[in-house]
Amino acid sequence: MKFLKAKSETLQAFQKFTAWEETQTGNILKRVVSDNGGEFKSEAFETWTKEKGITHHFAPAYTPKNKGMDKRKNQILITKACCLLSHSKLPNKFWAEAFKTSSDLSNLLPPCTRQFKIPYQVWFGREPKLEKLRPFGCSAFYWIPKQLGEDKF
């Protein structure tokens, strides 16, 4: 998940994601379905998808019935992020971190709609390492090796 400051960053972020996805999975992106947002309808975006051989489809405008599953998934992620922030008692400036964490946790849980297959495992082809999970908002300390530290404290 990548948070963008401006819609103009969409193409660059999508290019990075496509390269990462193809390296991680060995699969080539063939088709993209997006909304009718200007960031996806730009000439640069269209030129790049054509150069890469990616078919670009647009979802029909003003048809919320077609976006029901997406809206529901986003609402679930927002609710989880609110719960994480509330429980950790962190300020709202950590909203992006809470939202990313809620997305990461969702990718580690087996949904009944996908035959209880964990999305992470399907994507990467291996079991997730759950021992690295920590409570959201817990105290953490940054370790600086002695060779890099300026003083002993």
Plain-language structure description:
- This protein has five helices and two strands, in the order αβαβααα.
- It has helices spanning 10-25, 43-52, 68-88, 95-106, 119-124, and strands at 31-34, 55-58.
- The chain has a two-stranded parallel sheet with strand order 1-2.
- β1, α2 and β2 form a beta-alpha-beta unit.
- α3 crosses α4.
- The protein is globular.
Give me the secondary-structure topology.
Layout: H1 10-25, E1 31-34, H2 43-52, E2 55-58, H3 68-88, H4 95-106, H5 119-124
Parallel strand pairs: 1-2
Strand order of the largest sheet: 1-2
How far apart are the first and last residues' alpha carbons, in Å? 36 Å
Series of H and E elements: HEHEHHH
Q: What spatial form do the alpha-carbon principal axes imply? A: globular
Fraction of residues in β-strands: 5-15%
Q: Which percent bin holds the helix content?
A: 40-55%
Provide the residue-averaged pLDDT: 86
* Radius of gyration computed on alpha carbons: 19 Å
Number of strands: 2
Low-confidence runs (pLDDT<50, min 5 residues)? none
Question: Number of helical runs?
Answer: 5
Estimated structural class:
mainly alpha
Main sheet specs: 2 strands, parallel
Task: Write out key terms for the chains shown.
153 residues; mainly alpha; two-stranded parallel sheet; 5 helices; 5% strand; globular
Brief summary of the model shown:
With 153 residues, the protein is mainly alpha-helical. The chain is built from 5 helices and 2 strands; from the N terminus they run αβαβααα.
